[in-house]
Amino acid sequence: MTLLDGKKVSNDIKDEIAEEVKKMKANGEKVPHLAAVIVGSDGASLTYVGSKVRACERVGFESTMVRLSNTTSEIELLDKIEELNNNDDIDGFIIQLPLPPQIDTQKVLMAVNPDKDVDGFHPMNFGKMALDMSTFIPATPFGILELLDRYNVTTKGKHTVVIGRSHIVGRPMSILMGRKGFPGNSTVTLTHSHTKNITQITSQADIIISALGVPNFLKAEMVKEDAVVIDVGITRVADESSPKGYVITGDVDFENVSKKASFITPVPGGVGPMTIAMLLKNTLLARERHRARK
């Protein structure tokens, strides 16, 4: 069994990006600038945005955090997005989700300039991804592809089962794993809450990508010998024996599934760190596009 070490790979990617930024600075060029908009004071969101800002500092990017109150109206947020769209100094920006209930999330994501949409959520970018065109791939699926690539996991001709059909992970993964090229060229089955006989389906899979958000959902009996298992789930589970009062648990019963898998991601330390690394990579791509248009 080989551990797909997202922490190590993400650090390698950050080091590679930092080298590129050093060259930019040496040539007197503008370095990439990422902005993050956060509405309200959700603890998990603040932690996540904070880690993105630290990652920017590490690689030498400029970063801006835009903090808005929980009572911010949809119009006020749309005005702020328009401001960022028109700010030539900012190469890419993200809107941290979830948003407060008074704001229509879809309307907000649609308002982001697709050329600055480094999260890859805009329908234009999603459509380009589906058509195999050059675009921003959502950071978590992009990170999974990078892990498979760097560990030379064979995907061609394999049967990939994706568990979960969210627009952020499940659905894009099902498209990307079926595309021409590497990683890709696999036969994909997309499963979800209404799928019957899911154990029968997963037990035939060469590659399983679980993005369900149900702790320890994937058991050893659901996985065949030497399967590749990618665990995208991150759930806080109460645990009084832990200093924090909770533990982070994935979708996969790691202890038992790891005994059968050929490759497997841990939680934490697997897909999670890759998401931020690929957000930085998308911001680098946005900066290159920005320059090309000038």
General description of the model:
- By secondary structure, the protein is of the alpha/beta class.
- It folds into two domains: 28-113, Leucine Dehydrogenase, chain A, domain 1 (Rossmann fold, 3-Layer(aba) Sandwich); 139-273, Rossmann fold.
- Helix content is 39%, strand content 16%.
- The chain contains ten helices and eleven strands.
- It has helices at residues 6-26, 43-59, 74-85, 105-111, 123-130, 139-150, 170-176, 198-202, 254-257, 271-293, and strands at residues 2-3, 33-39, 62-68, 92-95, 159-163, 187-191, 207-210, 228-231, 235-238, 246-249, 263-264.
- A six-stranded parallel sheet has the order 1-11-8-7-5-6.
- Strand 9 and strand 10 (246-249) form a beta hairpin.
- Helix 1 (6-26) runs parallel beside helix 10, helix 2 packs across helix 10 (271-293) and helix 6 (139-150) crosses helix 10.
- The longest helix is centred in the C-terminal third of the chain and has 23 residues, at 271-293.
- The radius of gyration is 19 Å and the shape is globular.
